[in-house]
Each structure stands twice: as C-alpha cells, then as structure tokens.
Amino acid sequence: MNKQQAKQYRKPSWKERCRQIIELDGGTCQVCGRKEPDVVLQVHHKKYIQGKKPWEYNQQDLITLCKGCHAREHNLLPDAIPQSGWKYEGVDDLGGVNGVCELCGTELRYEHYLFHPDYDGYLSVGCDCACKLTNSEYPSIAERDMQLEEERLQRFVDSPRWKHRKNCYIYENYEKYKIMIVEMPYGCYVNLFYKYYVQLEYGGFHEQEHKISGKKKFPSLEDAKRHIYKNITDGTVLSYLCKHELPEPEERIYISEE
User: Looking at the DSSP assignment, which residues form a beta bridge with residue 252?
Assistant: First the structure.
C-alpha cells in the first residue's frame, strides 16, 4: 500500500462502508468469533481489483475481522516483518486520532511510512514502531517538527492581528505581505498585497503595490487562513511570482539607462 492508497482508508466513505459490513456480520470477527469490546473489529478485502476504491467493493468481497486476524491475513504479525533495513519515507498528520499502527495496533494521529525491499508495499506505523524498525530517532524528530509547525499554523489562524473589516479580514505585514480574506455568501477568497520599489528617472525609488487575487474558493474562514499560511511558508507564493516574472516583496527594480 502506498501513501495515496493509505489516505483512502481514512475517508468517510470507507468508514461508513466498514460500519455496514460489521453490522451485516453481526459485529463478530468471522474467523475467531470474538466481538467488541474484547477486540477491535476491522473490515478486510478478500481480493483487490485495480482502480476500485476501498468502499466500492461488493459485500461478498469484504469480511469483518478482528485486528489480530486481520494482521495475519496481511502477514503483518511482528515475526513476519523484517526487523531491520527499513527506509523512512515520511510522516502524515491525520488531523485527529484517525489511524492505527499496522505493527502494534495503537491508535495514532501521526502516520509514519516505512519501506523495505523485502516487504510488499509500505508499512504505516506509529512513532515508536517507526523508531524501532529504522533504529533511528528521526521519526520522533519529524513528528515533533510537524507538531511544532501545526502549533505555529494555529497561532497564525487565531492571531489577534487579524482585523475584521466589512466583509473581510485583514492581516497586516505577515512575511512582507498584507493578507485579505474576503467573505462572500458562498465562500471565502484570499487576496495578497505587497510592496516593491521602482527606480525613478532622476534617482531614488518609487513605492509600488502589487495585488494577487486568489480564485480558489474556501468553505470557511479557517480553511482560507490555513491555506494562505502554507502557501506563504512553503514557498508556493514565491514560486508563483518567479513563474510570472513578478517582483518579490520589497524588491528594487532597476531601470536600464540604455
């Protein structure tokens, strides 16, 4: 399973399909016969069909298993997994405790991906298991950095520097930009403003302002704030300016005398 496939198993459509199958199977593991709360019940695909999403399978292709029996079906028991030689591939924030470690079954928010040449596909695990299998502290460092970045993002979203004006919210001078989020009845839009300087004919520079009008619609104010924070901090905005040959914030444009 690759990272993109793993994300499909966190979608509401799959969770609803699991609920249906578990209910049809009487809330019982179809191998060992145990029920919740003694075990955690999951839904297993008996076969995989290329191009089909997890929730698009027919009832006869899905079966309720407890976590232990499910692990045996996928050969995920600890004694079947290489104990060394794993390559760390990265971490995803699930936005809540929405995942389960494929090695130990612990519920998790931060999902770490590992790869091994002798293992079929990626392994999705929690931080402790990732550190153990890679014999490295890097997974815990990566998770800590992701947590810190999420805290920074949330401070930006909740900042008192956001000023409410008629039909919009304005944040002055964030990373040299002025951010304006326009609220409309059908969604929010983001506009960016920044200053640059153009050389005057007889010396000195004239201040100019450039506006970037966002065309993407966001369902909520927080979604718009989170989007623009990431676009500014990850360099997406600067890449846009470079692509369109636009000046950067506070750049000085020199006019050739030729």
Answer: 197
Give the mean model confidence (pLDDT) for residues 1-7: 62
For the entire predicted model, the pTM comes to 0.64
Task: Read off the pLDDT of each residue in 7-13 and give the average, rounded to a whole number.
Answer: 77
Question: Quick check: is 34 in a domain?
Answer: yes
Q: Is residue 39 part of a domain?
A: yes
When pLDDT is averaged across residues 59-78 and rounded to a whole number, the result is: 76
pLDDT at 77: 54
What is the distance between the alpha carbons of residues 86 and 136, in angstroms, rounded to a whole number? 10
Does residue 103 fall inside a structural domain? yes
- Rounded Cα–Cα distance for residues 124 and 3 (Å): 9
- At residue 188, what are phi and psi to the nearest 5 degrees? -115, 145
Mean pLDDT of 116-136: 84
- With 0-12 / 13-18 / 19 or more C-beta atoms within 10 angstroms meaning exposed / middle / buried, residue 64 is buried
| φ, ψ (nearest 5 deg) of residue 228 | -70, -35
Coil, strand or helix: which one is 154? helix
pLDDT of residue 5: 65
CA distance 54 to 56: 6
User: Which CA distances in Å does 49 have to 62, 64, 85, 119, 236?
Assistant: 12, 19, 30, 20, 37
φ/ψ (deg, to 5) at 214? -75, 140
pLDDT of residue 231: 95
The total of structural domains in the chain comes to 3
